[in-house]
Amino acid sequence: MSSEPVRAEVVETGNPSMKAGRITIAAPAEEIFELLANPARHADIDGSGTVERAVSGPERLSQGAQFGMAMRIKVPYRIKNTVVEFDEPRQIAWRHTGRHRWRYQLEPIDANTTVVTETFDGSTAIFPPALKLINASENNQKAILKTLVRLKAIMEST
Known about the structure:
Blueprint: E1 9-11, E2 18-25, H1 29-36, H2 42-45, E3 51-56, E4 66-73, E5 75-87, E6 91-96, E7 101-110, E8 113-121, H3 128-133, H4 136-157
Antiparallel strand pairs: 1-2, 2-8, 3-4, 4-5, 5-6, 6-7, 7-8
């Protein structure tokens, strides 16, 4: 048994406004997608430490669904998200008022193994200078890698 820590890998996007990471998970894409489509589980996988809990919206996301999250970056706040990409069980993405988005792409390797890529896409932001001000690209790159490790741990423990 390896004592190496589990790590996600950085994916080079070629776009400074987009940061991504990838990890292989021993679970079917359909099961991983179910967790991602459940906003009540987002705090469980969040590697940024900012997602506290779902506060509004459906139990399961779909194209166009809106859901609210309680967040915290030094002070508590709430954010409303809208699902803008939904291709079950391969891709889901949502954005909030700032219009930047978080995307998960699932690529089945076989029936029980899936490569998951998470992307923070700041290229769709309505006010990119705000993202620079809060160092969103670097912060989100670190959070993505942590989120993917947490997602893998949850999916492989069930």
